[in-house]
Amino acid sequence: MKNSNYIISGILAVAVIVLFILQFTGRKGDTKSLEVAGAITNSTGSHLPVAFIRTDSLMAKYKFFIDLSNDLLKKQEDKTLIIKQRDDQLKKDIADFYQKVQNNVFISQERAQQEQSRLEGRQQDLQKLVAQSDREMSIEQAKTSQQLQDTIIAALKIFNTPRKYELIFANAGTDNILYADDSYDITNEVVAFLNARYVPAKK
């Protein structure tokens, strides 16, 4: 079984890759539109309508992501519990079988072989269950990652309408941006915007 950290890392990896490139219309030579956009001014006085989001911080504070992660972990825990119970029972039955063999309980060699074949079949079924569970969790993880990505991109288009950034970078640590002035960091602003829009599903 894949562990819970792997699932969270998988979702975070998808979020980190996202480069949000949002287009302008009619910006060439239009300095007024850049000023209205609230673009950041650098040391040379030129306007740079770009920003970046620290995705690790975003994911740690985004309520939707936290709920999705908890749902995935719950599903994995349920599957793990079922598999562990069946594995424990199988191990007990195998131990009982060898105990019976040692005590010559079986009335014939053929009967012992039948029981051994039955236990081997259960072992194969358990291996198939583990593989199936892994596949199902991979599918769930992919669906969740896509849902998260779609939600963030859709929300950022609305978020960016009055701000008119040309580029919004996704960054974790120094993966994509080695240095940037803190004034370009819009993480907290985006987190507040996303959480304000999020309505938890009723359970």
Mind sketching the topology for me?
Layout: H1 4-17, E1 20-21, H2 31-36, E2 40-41, E3 47-48, E4 50-54, H3 55-61, H4 63-102, H5 109-160, E5 167-171, H6 187-197
Parallel strand pairs: 4-5
Antiparallel strand pairs: 1-5, 2-3
Helix pairs in contact: 1-4, 1-5, 3-6, 4-5, 5-6
Helix content: 55-70%
- From the spread of the alpha carbons, the general shape counts as rod-shaped
**Rg, Å, rounded:** 27 Å
Whole-number total of structural domains: 1
Percentage beta strand: 5-15%
Which stretches of 5+ consecutive residues score pLDDT under 50? 1-43
Reported for the largest beta sheet, the result is: 3 strands, mixed
Spatial order of the strands forming the largest sheet: 1-5-4
How many helices? The count is 6
Provide the succession of SSEs.
Answer: HEHEEEHHHEH
Explain what this protein looks like in three dimensions:
Helices cover 64% and strands 8% of the residues. With 203 residues, it is mainly alpha-helical. The chain has one domain. It has a three-stranded mixed β-sheet. Strands 2-3 form a two-stranded antiparallel sheet. It is rod-shaped and about 90 Å long. The two termini are 27 Å apart.
What distinguishing features does this structure have?
203 residues; disordered N terminus; mainly alpha; 3-stranded mixed sheet; two-stranded antiparallel ribbon; rod-shaped
